[in-house]
Amino acid sequence: MLGLKPRDDGAAEVGVIETTTDKKEYKHPQYQNFVLVDCPGVGTPKWPKETYLKSLNLQNCDFVIIISGSRFKENDAWLATETMKAKKKFYFVRSKIDQDIHSESENGLKSSEVVTKVENYCKQELSKLEFKNADVFIISSRFKLREQFHLKRLINTLLTDIPTLKRDALILSISLTIEPVLYEKKTILLERICKIASTAARRIFSKTNGLRILHAEIEFYQEQLGVNEERLIGFARQIDMTIDAFKKQIDLRSSIILNDPLQFREFCLRNTLSRKDIHENDHRSTLEKFFSRKNFNRFCYALYDLLMMCFEEALRILKLISTKY
Ligand SMILES: Nc1nc2c(ncn2[C@@H]2O[C@H](COP(=O)(O)OP(=O)(O)OP(=O)(O)O)[C@@H](O)[C@H]2O)c(=O)[nH]1
Ligand SMILES: [Mg+2]
């Protein structure tokens, strides 16, 4: 969820031996108020069941994710019950599905069949532990596989469950490029257009400053939607393509405009979009309210256009990557 590999700075420690012995907070690299707390499992020497809840400080959490790499056991069910009593949401997550897929491939099972088998088995086990109809999210933490399996559904569920006020912060913190997250991000970024355009337009006697604000915002779009240089290199590597071939295939235009000062200036100061080009649902009324002010208009159009461009690029990346798996 933090978009980090195990060896990256700020990533949680992982290891084959007991690794997490104390509670540790992991701040999102870009969004410091999104904090994931990694805790040892229930019943480990330093974290016995008797003092677990006190150590966990459940009241300070928004939700609890209970992760198991094998079967869910009594202690997992106990933690879920306690979380429920504290009126917080909990989620059962079964990781390491890639290992099951690997083991079962020799038996001729397809990966989707293995996922279903493990999911049903986990549900069965949880039902024996008095969790009838529990939802179980099957995932793999392997960096290359993290956007596959049920992580998409887990994130969607989190987004539905989270208190509204915290939703935007959560969505912007999610570094995964998965379709529902992209759509949510687009909505949040659209809502920022007026404010950014207005700030930039107020620098009316100094267009350069205004343009600098737009430039920073569009870099933020790229970062958020996963079409910045760093993510592109990662995606290209993931599907064994050279970065140039990848960019060509995606028909990447946003970074070309952003990296060429002249083109960028021209793009921001033109005013080619007409009202009918603005999609019906895309906050038309908010945008229209301000349509009379010239620079504001131009900046709104430019931001809108570039946001859509980045968004379409992100969708094309997603499509390309999914066809390669
Ligand atoms: N193949 C595979 N290995 C995984 C996956 N998730 C974790 N691992 C590996 O399993 C081992 C244990 O992972 P950790 O993340 O340290 O597990 P943990 O539950 O935090 O363990 P403690 O901190 O000791 O409680 C490490 O070697 C990880 O690399 C996964 O989805 N697939
Ligand atoms: Mg750990």
From TrEMBL:
Which stretches make up the IRG-type G domain?
Answer: 1-161
Identify its protein family.
Belongs to the TRAFAC class dynamin-like GTPase superfamily. IRG family.
Query: Which species expresses this protein natively?
Result: Dreissena polymorpha (Zebra mussel)
Instruction: Determine the domain of life of the protein's source.
Output: Eukaryota
Stored Gene3D superfamilies: P-loop containing nucleotide triphosphate hydrolases
The UniProt keyword set, sorted, is:
GTP-binding, Hydrolase, Nucleotide-binding
The record's annotation in SUPFAM superfamilies points to: P-loop containing nucleoside triphosphate hydrolases
* GO MF terms, alphabetically ordered: GTP binding; hydrolase activity
Protein known as:
IRG-type G domain-containing protein
Q: Might you report a single GO cellular component term?
A: membrane
Q: Name one Pfam family in it.
A: IIGP
